[in-house]
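ok so I'm stuck.
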Amino acid sequence: MPILRIILCEIDCFSQFKFNGKELYITSIFRARDKGVHGCWRGTDARTEHTGKAYYTKKEIDTILSHFNQRWVYDPKRPQYKVLIYHKIKGGVFHLHAQVHKNTIKRCAMPDMVKIPREQFQIIKKIIDKIGEGLK
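replied:
not stuck anymore, here's the structure
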């Protein structure tokens, strides 16, 4: 499974688990004329606001960023780059931007999701399976 897909599934599950069912809304994956990560299927954008209203709170965004940038390393040779950033492009809106590199690696386990009740684990597993089917 491609690393970007794994990361997006993890972010979606984390968001739903931590923030009362909030799903990750992907707004952009591939851009044909993009010379950056969107042009080679290595970057994805996700909504943090819609029609001027915040979808995630500032605290929720900070939690997601912190968690996934601790969990994943974009490129060990260039630690200044992150797997997940929150930014605004010219003429656009603020959003989460996930990106991967051929050297992207997983750093550690997700400690706050490891010790969860079995029934919650089953719900998370179903969500991951459903996402995986939708991305085929």
